[in-house]
Write a structure and sequence with these properties.
The structure holds 2 protein chains of 2 kinds. Chain A is of the alpha/beta class. Chain A is built from 16 helices and 13 strands. Classes of the chains: A alpha/beta, B alpha/beta. At the A-B interface, helix 1, helix 2, helix 3, helix 4 and helix 5 of A face helix 1, helix 2, helix 3, helix 4 and helix 5 of B.
Amino acid sequence: MKLIFERGEEGQGLSLMPACDVPVVKPQSGYAREDKLNLPHVSENELSRHYSELGKAVHGVNDGFYPLGSCTMKYNPKINEAVAALPGFTGVHPLQPEETAQGCLEVLYDTEKALAEISGMDSVTLQPAAGAHGEFTGLMLIKSYLRFKGEKERVKIIVPDSAHGTNPASAAMCGFEIVNIPSAPDGCVDLEALKNAVGKDTAGLMLTNPNTVGVFDKNILEITKIVHDAGGLCYYDGANLNAVMGVVRPGDMGFDCIHFNLHKTFSTPHGGGGPGSGPVGCKAFLADFLPGVRVKKDAEGKLHASKSPKSFGNVKAFGGNFLVVVRALAYILTLGKEGIPEAAKNAVLNANYMQACLKEDFDLAYNVHCMHEFVLTLDRLHRETGVSALDLAKGLLDNGIHPPTMYFPLIVHEALMIEPTETEPKETLDEAIAVFKQLKKLAYENPQALHDAPTKTPVRRLDDVKAARTPVLKYKFQ
Amino acid sequence: MGSYVPSSGTEREEMLKKIGVATVEELYASVPHEMLLKSLNLPEGKSELEVSAEMEALAQKNTIFKTVLRGAGAYDHYIPAAVKSVTSKEQFVTAYTPYQAEISQGILQSIFEYQTMICSLTGMDVSNASVYDGATAMAEAVAMCKERKRTKAYISATVNPVYLDVVKTYCSASNTDLTVVPAKDGKTDAQALEALLSDTASCLLVQQPNFYGLFEDAETLGNIAHAAGAKYVICANPISLGICKTPAEYGADVAVGEGQPLGMPLAFGGPYLGFMACKESMQRKLPGRIVGETTDLDGKRGYVLTLQAREQHIRREKASSNICSNQALCALTAGVYMAAMGAKGMAQAATLSMSKAHYLAKSLCTVPGVRMVYDGDYFNEFVTTLPQCDKVLSALEKKGILGGLPVEEGVLWCATEKVSKEELDRAAAIVKEVLA
């Protein structure tokens, strides 16, 4: 595919800007640009076709099955897109007077209330822009609370070795020391390891439940109690909330704060990597420390935004990824009290069905009923045929299926983590199961075919080493 | 109840049978029984028509101003129709992060093109694929510049106060010492800066044009920072770069900024776009995703996520940042915007915005009691005094005009290419009428 810089000709362009109807003012020489500005020079038709061509070389949820573990690639409803495009939302300036933005404030208010109810928390901020940003925010809540209480010696955050990479990275950004604890053989928290890890220096624990191997930790109440008894706080990574929303609440498991991923659980699109939204909920004793503003309703139903004097500040300019929140609210309104647990239960049903079918041909990392996702280990297949998890994943590409998450969690060898989500029909699952089984057969019959995969995609396997050794990170203009 | 679950009752029964359980509830056996929720305290689910009506009713509760004379970090620029059309393509909207490069070339290439355009715009060597917004881009730049023996960050008091607040939060998190360099006449006080900088200075952060719209003496400030051995970070307004000196021309090591003006609507504050670019020597300290060019097995050109050893999924607690999800679709938007505008369009938008702001300033200052607070050169924002500020702004609002933002020093006004001379004249006339 041509780059946009390789299209069109100098002098070409769209006619977008009018003539200036006031006296022209330009920056004085000390402030004026001298460097040539190299940008594309294309007609509107060329521009449009260029991006259509790029679009054809992208696989979205709309294009096929996307069982990407821990990412919850569910269907993105069209009504959400429609309401997020309403001029009554897109045209509001973030700093316009409160009384002229009552609709936006109501969106925030309603979404905060719904998320608090779903998570069993008391307060929610919608300011964080993504899951990792939510983790940063939640950890800052913990840090601010401990500072307020004068417990400066609590500097350690405990993270299981099965955790998402963002957990330790967020803790490090908040100036915490990270204590990694190994998982028990069943993939859950090793209670002894946890007991040994906690102490007077414990600030808190970060945990995903169900965890990254797709198992709900049955000891959850004991886990949160161990941390609380040691004086630490419990942080819930909401990446896997889709398995349990409306069924069981992090707040009732003993967690003090949580981040949500609206772009996973609440059906907002991933946009090729973002924007997401990572609201943070917390129990009442942490609420005053939340960043940004809180929206409150007065006796007349008017909404007001105000900041707590104890708030630790802002994690982002303005109120967050507002249009993502609008989409999530539309989703919550659509599903309602019955639809939310129905979605969770069907996510779990779909995952268990795929697991039950695939375990006939593949090894499960943990042979138990799973929640919304499960992990295959291709260790044996790799040893016997030389076909790795990566090879199998590349084979899926040729069959129009986005591969599962590969090589994660780190505690499982040759891992493929599969999360079908509730929005896939049985038919799609059956087709995918058949493809997985075919590929396994192929691994034994003709492993080279899988080493060579994919062959039907716009490009074949790409040279990552070359990209990193001799980085070419932008187009070089003539 | 609305639902996006497609399987039928019969299919669900078949699936349960295959799993070997009688009910879905059995699959939740590991959840302590007393913890199971009886019912959510939420309204019942609704049909699409009801949801649509409810959301529209909420949208209608907002006032949409026809004329926006307020900026302060969110700018009402024209968005070309082609931008909206391209960025609503479902492949781009519904795809995940392009980890599977073979089926993500469209997204990867669009990011590579975006990186190239951000480098062109700022004059820098390397751009990442985006961070959350301008404020977090500034905060990430502080982390990027930190070195073992250089740990103290300096930031000008003339940056957007919300950005300052976010930088303070990030510095407080990482226990980074942050010094605010005072302002003098609306600009960074160079003398004070010189006196404040120490040999442990890691970086200086300056906004150009600054929060008050004024052009900083950015070259001088950079020289002072570099003389002290600190890195120099400029937060730039991307539209201004159509005609204004680039961060690179001022000697910056890192350029960051808010990309919202590049095709994103005001949208009550987001989603916006944080852009970040730097000199080649610092590329391995850039946070977030970066796309690089390479070849496939057949030697065909292609693109991949690269230099990933900086990132959290590889390095965990040693990563340069925790960022995972970024603002990819917004970066695509900015890329399409810049491609649609071209160098000429970017220069036009910048010149129109600057010219209209100067016209507005001149018109407002003919009203008795209204004068410029600072006398420096400015781009498309400026601060005036405004007697009876609340009364004037509310009179403007009644006529569909969002006036300037009240700030400590007066009122911060803004103009873009979208406002016509007629609208500007009307706004000035209303101010005159109220104050008469």
